[in-house]
Design a protein that fits this description.
282 residues, mainly alpha, 11 helices
């Protein structure tokens, strides 16, 4: 057989990319208004958080976070948080940090609203968990950049689109760990509650959720970390915050600017990680 008889493997045999593009264009053309309605609660929440955090004098959030760190973790984290935020303010990144913090809080809030009920349902229903697992696998393994094109087409650009992309990227851990926490509750405890006449709702709220709470909070911690990691990527579609100086430094090959933005993200991530872990342990 001549080499010309072989199918060239460097050319597309199945036009999957065209099918996906046509599908997204169809969604944009037919359901643009629907996606704009979905965008409203995210936009309102983000705008309120951003306005509130940026309107406060810089020392109030610093004091509040330091007090929270002192209460739940101790003096070391409180001092570290205080010095970190003072350094961020001295670097001229205070407003960008508050924007990033607002984006993370909004993202994590919606991730919890979506993820905890889905995780509970998956933990209590094996069939639903089996159907949900490949979806979560795909969400966690799909490169974050792939989300950006359909997000821009459906929701335009800006902070709200960045938050929506972050929600999609960061929601799988809280779903998985909520499901795991519910499944790890010993069946004998559930049977004992049912034997005493507890309803399914009472079993869920008084037995399963309290016992699964440490695992759920661990999932929330992972969601926060993934949300922060998405900040820089979301800056590529017009989201502000600490991702903007990193992307600008990349575009202009300004190592210093990118490093300063990255340092602020690292400090914020360490503070939120240690604080949420301490709250979970309490």
């Amino acid at each position: 057989m001549l080499s010309g008889d072989f199918i060239p493997l460097d050319e597309s045999i199945i036009p999957l990319s065209e099918w996906i593009s046509e599908g997204i264009n169809w969604l944009v053309y037919n359901f643009r208004d629907f996606f704009q309605v979905i965008k409203i609660p995210v936009e309102v929440t983000l705008t309120s958080l951003t306005s509130g955090l940026t309107a406060l004098p810089f020392y109030i959030p610093i004091i509040l976070i330091a007090l929270l760190a002192w209460k739940f973790s101790g003096k070391r984290l409180a001092i570290f948080s205080l010095l970190s935020f003072v350094l961020i303010a001295c670097l001229g990144l205070w407003e960008a940090t508050m924007t990033t913090l607002a984006m993370v809080i909004a993202s994590v809030l919606f991730c919890a609203i979506i993820g905890v009920p889905l995780g509970v349902l998956a933990g209590r229903n094996a069939l639903f968990e089996s159907a949900l697992r490949p979806v979560l696998d795909a969400m966690q393994t799909t490169p974050a950049f792939v989300y950006l094109v359909p997000i821009v087409m459906l929701f335009s650009i800006g902070n709200t689109a960045g938050v929506i992309a972050t929600i999609i990227f960061a929601v799988p851990p809280i779903i998985r760990l909520t499901c795991l926490g519910i499944r790890q509750v010993h069946p004998e405890l559930v049977e004992a509650a049912q034997a005493f006449g507890a309803s399914e709702f009472q079993v869920l709220t008084q037995v399963q959720l309290p016992l699964a709470l440490p695992t759920i909070l661990a999932g929330l911690n992972q969601t926060i970390m993934m949300a922060l990691s998405m900040v820089v990527i979301a800056a590529l579609i017009g989201a502000g915050g600490l991702g903007a100086p990193v992307v600008l430094g990349l575009n202009t090959l300004d190592t210093g600017q990118a490093a300063v933005g990255g340092l602020a993200i690292v400090l914020l991530a360490v503070i939120l990680d240690r604080l949420t872990q301490s709250i979970a342990s309490k």
